[in-house]
Design brief:
heterotrimer, A alpha+beta, B alpha+beta, C alpha+beta, B: Arc Repressor Mutant, subunit A, 3 domains, flat, C: alpha+beta, six-stranded antiparallel beta sheet, 5 helices
Chain lengths: 145, 267, 217
């Protein structure tokens, strides 16, 4: 797993990448400047919540390319795990996508990884609870539900 | 497909072709094709009225106003090609009149601005006393602070249409505030080796069969590039484009795995 | 407590009229998206108002814009100070006029934006909504109310991820699946969602959209 993250980290413009399993496990090689593991967890939970909302709408989304003034965040949401990549604005997008697609294919072909993900029972939907978010967001979730 | 009218844009302006078709109350599609980047544009008529236009990312009037500036490449009118889309509401007479004015404005500056891709620089001179610069003029001039830029690059930076930037640049040049840059032409990028595509085609044929060559050419054309001068830094995008055309997921992955290895070996 | 209710059932203008004509000395309170608004009535008129940190007539105009939220009116609450001297009927008229004007300007801008969006090649659906999920404009989007709530939620999350990762303000989100592709952006404080064809170039669509926004600056 970490070797795949390392490959992703080596793409031009990537600051750091991490993997988050829906049962809460976080895997990473390095922390992006100014961030810690708790922030990685927070970002990951927000990503899973987004994926859960799209599930409710019947949309099967798997890629998020989020552009900001000073950075870019990519998130790949698979069934039981997620890969999140923190980048500079000038990241080589096509190269990153290619690397991530190949990494995901390699991971999902790996028996050990398959075993790990098959054990996960936590659903994305379980992240959409009132205690996990601010009141306004919860009101919105209730409307979608 | 039947061709009622076709030819080269070097000899007749788009606006005049349209006037001809409109006066004949024609139905059909005027297809335009630029030489260098193989870009195409389409303008549809119904009963002599212009009802739809399509050019790159734009539909309707914005597409129309881009297309009437095209002055090199080919055109062909096909009366059998029709459309159900109606993206242009404006009265055709008014549209043609506005189009003519737009084209004439462009004519005035196109001998000063030979291409949207040539780079310009600041001369560093002060504006002459009779010249009053507006906000947008300063914005364009200020983009040149960091270095030489082309009209296309400036339009991108400022989120403005290329023709608007070109008009301002022409005025700046006439006022002595900007000039064609020392670099003159756009920077040449590193291109792939001569056997890159034959190798790529051989690999891809193994994965998806003889249709490989067509897919590769289609994707290259989509980038506005050619096999001979394909920039190295566009290879990842090329791979992405080709893999989007491979519908079998297993074959798609196999291709991507192969290409990732190749790309790493190139650097 | 003299009166308890929700502004979606009872218009503020009616509440004001009631308290003034009855010459009540009372305080009206409403909570709106974490901000507290208060209006103090004394002897047939409005004498003071607050909305968050804002005081006086401006607070009244802010409170007049609230369309729903729980409120209560309590009797015999003296105003802490006097910041308003304009007769209540004038305040209402002016307030409603300002609201109409702002709505018209916003409506104009939104209608220009949606016209511009229709000219972008590759867009097959548009939804514009507030960050609270209120639909401002929609075309080609199924189940508008749920979609609006979802997009408002998503954009809030995108914002949050940007802050947590120290990436700065949101510019756009490109969201893709096997059968869906969307671009989410913010225009002023509202959410703009574009559904785009799978074959369309999302960067090209985003650029075309940015040019439309730029034409309003």
């Amino acid at each position: 797993m970490k070797d795949k993250l390392e490959e992703i980290d080596s793409v031009d413009g990537v600051k750091a990448s991490f993997m988050f399993f829906n049962d809460g496990e976080l895997v990473y090689n390095k922390l992006a400047p100014g961030l810690d593991a708790e922030i990685y967890q927070e970002i990951a939970k927000d990503v899973v919540q987004m994926a859960a909302i799209f599930d409710r709408l019947g949309s099967h989304i798997h890629e998020y390319d989020l552009k900001y003034e000073n950075g870019r965040v990519f998130a790949y949401t698979q069934n039981n795990y997620n890969i999140i990549i923190l980048c500079n604005p000038e990241v080589s997008v096509a190269m990153l996508r290619l690397t991530v697609n190949v990494a995901i294919a390699d991971l999902e072909a790996d028996k050990k990884f398959q075993k790990r993900t098959s054990k996960i029972e936590t659903s994305r939907r379980s992240y959409l609870v009132r205690s996990n978010m601010d009141p306004e967001s919860w009101t919105l979730v209730e409307t979608v539900n | 497909m039947s061709n009622v009218l076709s030819g080269s844009l070097a000899y007749i302006e788009v606006i005049n072709i349209l006037k001809l078709l409109v006066s004949g109350d024609r139905d059909g599609r005027l297809l335009l094709q630029k030489e260098e980047h193989q870009e195409t544009g389409e303008i549809y008529l119904s009963g002599g009225r212009i009802i739809h236009a399509l050019c790159g990312n734009y539909l309707g009037e914005p597409a129309f106003f881009e297309l009437i500036l095209w002055n090199h490449g080919k055109f062909a009118f096909d009366p059998e090609e029709t459309t159900a889309q109606k993206t242009i509401e404006k009265d055709t007479g008014t549209l043609l009149s506005e189009g003519t004015q737009h084209y004439q404005a462009w004519q005035k500056i196109c001998h000063i601005i030979p291409s949207f891709r040539i780079r310009f620089k600041k001369t560093g001179q002060e504006p002459p006393p009779n010249v009053k610069l507006k906000g947008k003029d300063w914005e364009v001039l200020n983009t040149l602070e960091a270095g030489e830029l082309s009209v296309t690059e400036i339009a991108d930076k400022l989120n403005t249409r290329e023709i608007e930037v070109a008009t301002i640049m022409a005025a700046l040049m006439e006022a002595g505030l900007a000039d064609i840059g020392a670099s003159g032409k756009p920077v040449m990028k590193e291109v792939v080796s001569s056997n890159f595509f034959s190798n790529l085609e051989n690999e891809l044929v193994q994965i998806i069969g003889p249709v490989a060559s067509i897919i590769i050419d289609d994707v290259i054309e989509g980038f506005g590039e050619t096999r001979i001068s394909f920039p190295k830094d566009k290879i990842p995008s090329l791979v992405e484009g080709i893999s989007n055309e491979i519908y079998d997921p297993a074959k798609q992955v196999a291709f991507q795995q192969l290409m990732l290895k190749k790309i790493k070996s190139l650097h | 407590m003299a009166l308890v209710g929700n502004l979606k059932d009872l218009k503020l203008a009616n509440i004001v009229q009631l308290n003034c004509m009855e010459k009540n000395n009372s305080m009206f309170t409403v909570d709106h998206h974490k901000v507290n608004g208060r209006i103090y009535f004394s002897d047939g008129n409005i004498v003071h108002a607050t909305y968050g940190n804002i005081e006086g007539e401006e607070a009244i105009y802010k409170i007049l814009q609230i369309k729903e939220g729980p409120f209560r009116v309590e009797n015999d609450v003296p105003p802490p100070k006097r910041t308003i001297n304009t007769p209540w009927s004038n305040l209402l008229l002016e307030g409603l006029r300002l609201i109409d004007e702002a709505l018209e300007a916003k409506g104009d801008a939104l209608s220009k934006i949606s016209k511009g969006i229709k000219n972008i090649n590759g867009v097959n659906g548009v939804l514009i909504c507030s960050l609270f999920g209120e639909i401002l404009m929609e075309e080609g989007i199924a189940n508008g109310k749920r979609a609006a709530a979802a997009m408002a939620f998503i954009l809030r999350k995108i914002d949050k991820v940007g802050r947590a990762s120290k990436s700065g303000a949101v510019k756009a989100g490109h969201i893709s699946g096997k059968a869906d592709r969307k671009i989410l952006t913010k225009w002023k404080d509202d959410v703009v969602e574009l559904n785009i064809d799978l074959k369309a170039n999302p960067d090209g669509v985003e650029q075309a959209l940015e040019k439309i926004y730029a034409s309003f600056q």
